């Protein structure tokens, strides 16, 4: 067995932060699947300066995982070594900077961004309304729905690196594709300038319609991470899974949704290991049945129990 990173201990966190970080924080509290073991250190910064100081005082070899609302994350039952930096409930500035441009910090929930753009008469940002994450997560994932995609609107992003150094990077520093963003490593998003079009007549009905459409097709309200797999070219992962007869297939307290086969539901007591075993089972079965390899959209992190 190879030795993974060592635990980040309380004594390694500077006094300035030791009262404000949670140690051994259960990640099941911070993920929409409500599963996953403890993070050594869990930190929610007050602002960007606070975050930069926190990163600077971390031991150079301590891994960091940045999260938003944990709506696309499977954290294994053994938890996360190092520090988790959480954007939920912080870095929430959202402002209009010109006729068609906005600036948003990484902690802004996508739903708020959608509603505010409608108020400003800007669009198309309505698609953000049904994505239950933060802008930071949407930037990392190139989140999208109903023909809308996050990076189509990005002009530039603000990032912070391991040493707490802040930079602004243009769109052209990244390679963007479907649910994939490749850019410089060891830095994370703290905000972005986004461009939309003027939509003078737009109102909340546009958002309500999209949310209604979701409710009829997806198991909204149940514990999930949305679509588990990306759609293979020209196909729908959900349709492939359904045709392979996997709707309702269960491991432990996790099952393939009856309503939308690309969703896996935690019915209350599923461990991350059950969910991961179910993901593997779906991949194997779809490969046997359709000769198509499904790729996970959800990010799987942490150590096994
Ligand atoms: C019911 C439901 C419906 C969904 N529908 C959609 C949909 O229609 N379209 C869609 O695209 N997704 C959908 N999702 C998935 C999810 O909401 C998106 O992927 C979302 O963008 C994740 O944002 P988050 O803040 O929760 O990120 P997290 O889940 O916390 O993190 C996701 C990834 O982003 C990284 N990350 C997070 N914040 C940062 C940051 N600031 N800087 C760098 N990296 C960061 C994390 O390390 C991780 O790798 C759905 C999920 C659910 C539960």
Description:
The protein has seven helices and 20 strands. The chain has helices at residues 15-18, 48-57, 110-120, 135-141, 205-217, 237-243, 272-290; strands at residues 22-26, 38-43, 64-67, 73-75, 80-86, 94-96, 101-105, 122-123, 144-145, 148-149, 154-161, 166-170, 175-177, 180-182, 187-195, 197-198, 250-251, 254-256, 264-266, 299-301. The model has no long low-confidence stretch (mean pLDDT 96). It has 305 residues and is α+β, with helices and mostly antiparallel strands. The strands form seven sheets. The chain has a five-stranded antiparallel beta sheet. It binds flavin-adenine dinucleotide. Flavin-adenine dinucleotide is lined by residues 32, 65-73, 87, 106, 130-134, 136-138, 140-141, 143-145, 188-189, 220, 224-226, 299.
Could you tell me the mean pLDDT? 96
Beta-strand residue percentage: 25-35%
Number of helices: 7
Side-by-side strand order of the widest sheet: 6-7-15-11-12
Secondary-structure element series = HEEHEEEEEHEHEEEEEEEEHHEEEHE
What would a concise description of this structure say?
The protein is α+β, with helices and mostly antiparallel strands and 305 residues long.
């Amino acid at each position: 067995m190879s030795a993974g990173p060592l635990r980040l201990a309380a004594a390694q966190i500077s006094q300035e932060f030791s009262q404000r970080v949670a140690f051994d924080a259960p990640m099941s509290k911070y993920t929409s699947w409500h599963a996953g073991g403890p993070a050594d250190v869990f930190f929610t910064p007050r602002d960007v300066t606070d975050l930069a100081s926190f990163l600077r005082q971390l031991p150079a070899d301590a891994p960091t995982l940045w999260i938003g609302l944990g709506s696309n994350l499977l954290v294994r039952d053994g938890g996360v070594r190092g520090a988790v930096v959480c954007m939920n409930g912080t870095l929430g500035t959202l402002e209009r900077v010109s006729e068609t441009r906005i600036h948003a910090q990484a902690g802004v929930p996508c739903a708020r961004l959608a509603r505010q753009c409608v108020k400003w008469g800007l669009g198309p940002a309505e698609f953000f309304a049904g994505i239950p994450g933060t802008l930071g997560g949407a930037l990392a994932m190139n989140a999208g729905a109903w023909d809308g995609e996050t990076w189509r609107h990005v002009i530039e992003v603000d990032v912070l690196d391991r040493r707490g150094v802040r930079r602004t990077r243009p769109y052209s520093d990244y390679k963007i594709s479907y649910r994939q963003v490749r850019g410089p490593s060891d830095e994370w998003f703290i905000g972005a300038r986004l461009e939309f079009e003027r939509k003078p007549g737009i109102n909340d009905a546009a958002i309500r319609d999209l949310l209604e459409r979701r409710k009829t097709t997806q198991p909204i309200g149940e514990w999930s991470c949305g679509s588990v797999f990306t759609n293979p070219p020209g196909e729908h992962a959900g349709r492939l899974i359904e045709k392979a007869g996997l709707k309702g297939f269960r491991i432990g307290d996790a099952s393939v949704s009856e309503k939308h086969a690309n969703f896996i539901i935690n019915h209350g007591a599923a461990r991350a290991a059950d969910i991961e075993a179910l993901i593997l089972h779906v991949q194997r079965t779809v490969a046997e049945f359709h000769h198509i390899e499904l790729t996970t959209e959800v990010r799987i992190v942490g150590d096994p129990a």
